[in-house]
Amino acid sequence: MWEEGNWSATALNFEADVEHWRARLTPRQRDAALWNYAMFLVGEEAVARTLSPILDAVDDHDDQAFLATQIVDEARHHVFFDRFLREVAGVGEDPSSTLTAVQDHLTWGFRQVFGELDRITAELRRRPRDRALLAQAVALYHFVVEGMLATASQHFIQRYIRSLGLLPGFAEGMARVARDESRHVAFGVWLLGGLVQRDDEARDAAIALWERVLPWAAGVFVPPGMDTSYAECFGFTIPEILAFGLRSFETKVRRAGIEPRAVPLLAAEPEAATFEERGERLWTLVRDRILGTDDDPEPTERSLELILEAAARVMHEPTARSLGGPVQWEFRDGPPYHVVAVGSGLEARRGRAAAPALTIECSVRDWARIVMRRSDPRLALLAGRIRIHGPIQAKVKLPRLFDHPVLRPH
Ligand SMILES: [Fe+2]
Ligand SMILES: [Fe+2]
User: Fold this and answer.
1) Residues within 5 A (CB) of ion ligand 2
2) For residue 73, how far is its CA from the centre of ligand 2 (angstroms)?
3) Most exposed among 193, 209, 265, 318, judged by the fewest C-beta atoms under 10 Å?
4) Average pLDDT for 72-89
5) Which domains does the chain have, with CATH numbers?
């Protein structure tokens, strides 16, 4: 397939693209394209550079041959975006200055995800025999970076350049990139599938990696200043891109033999929700700076509701029932909520419970930080930012109640 699908990034003709870029794209479309393609350029350079430790860690000669072809693909993708950004968008003078010039466009989420890719692959270079580490590298590289982020971005880029009839040279290159990427992702699914089938430790390691990285991945497509016109100027929305990324990611996780709800962060979502609903919910949390950013949370009534619903889904149900009453939240800066055991599980409700077994007093911001693992609940307790009220028999159950990876600080 690789030999049949070979193409040339240097042979693409960008003459019409130069004209379109100058005369047919609106200033906002140019900003939006630059913002998005800058992440592709830096991403392709990074994946070309970080795949060799994975190649060194696989044993099979066929796998090694495949990964060698993938390194060539990623280098070619880098050349493609580098040419476009310089020759069409006029950014930089050579590959190195073009890479440097786009750094300002990288989002906080992007920097976190790719920082982790550098760390994990550097560690794998030192310990190529570690199967759990190899599983984490593939879980990040092929599932998050390629299977979620690149796949979603490519889908919307291809859709708008096709419907607007713009940038023909770029369109041809993107179609080639997308075909290469689907080959890479299919290989990654197969490779991780084999690793987790042979070894539970590899499975747990992949899940732990996703727990750490998914909140950052949610912040990759945060537009500058939360300005959603960066997507809307091309006829799509940010929640749509989040929904597409989630769907693509979960499909691959399932194909690798892991149930997506084994990833606690994904289990915090209602089982019946569609991907479109989940994209909307995720965007609400990102927009209110609850996750995907290192800005201070700015919770609204809606994001607070989502946070409490998620808490009810991840709380340890037998422990919650053993308390003999609801858990009450008294927010210093927001409406009260409580979580109560109902027939089929736990449910978050707005308002005060008649006889709570345990009361948690804190600010909405602090609770948002704890839920998204951005701060350590023990430190918040010590600092008095959280106070717990209730009988000692109930208080001692608190760690078990929230003994959940989502709520455990990293
Ligand atoms: Fe690529
Ligand atoms: Fe790729």
Assistant:
1) 146, 181, 184
2) 7
3) 318
4) 98
5) 15-287 (1.10.620.20), 308-401 (3.30.1050.10)
